[in-house]
Design goal:
The two termini are about 25 Å apart. About 0% of the residues lie in helices and about 55% in strands. It is elongated, with a radius of gyration of 14 Å.
């Protein structure tokens, strides 16, 4: 996807269920991992059924980013192997706090349904 500095608004407000599933907006919070190096914060975010063109990253503050991604089709929890929950969703949405101050500039790459985001640390 290359270098990104995006500031587009997400299509859905808050209202997420405690489980990370916003039923009204048909959005779910994606799974992600984070690690830090001396110079950057790196996030890997699971986004199955998403194309790079449907991903929006936004720098919220020095310690948080927001991701919104539309799926290429409706996904049921059953599609993901979940047996304890029923329902469908069409997007992923998360506000992620990072443990170190970050710059606005991000680079990202989507490969096999996993988005890797590199964010340069301040100072």
């Amino acid at each position: 996807m290359g270098d990104l500095t995006l500031s587009s608004e997400t299509k859905h407000g808050s209202g997420a269920h405690a489980s990370g599933w916003n039923v009204a907006a048909a959005c779910i919070e994606p799974l992600y991992n984070m690690f830090m190096t001396a110079n950057e914060v790196v996030l890997t975010i699971d986004l199955p059924f998403v194309t790079a063109q449907k991903i929006r990253l936004r720098h919220l503050s020095e310690d948080s980013i927001e991701i919104y991604a539309e799926t290429s089709r409706k996904i049921s929890f059953k599609d993901l192997g979940a047996k304890h929950r029923h329902g469908e969703f069409t997007c992923y949405h998360a506000r992620i706090k990072v443990p170190a101050p970050i710059k606005r500039r991000m680079s990202s790459k989507l490969k096999h349904g996993v988005l890797e985001v590199h964010i340069e640390r301040l100072g």
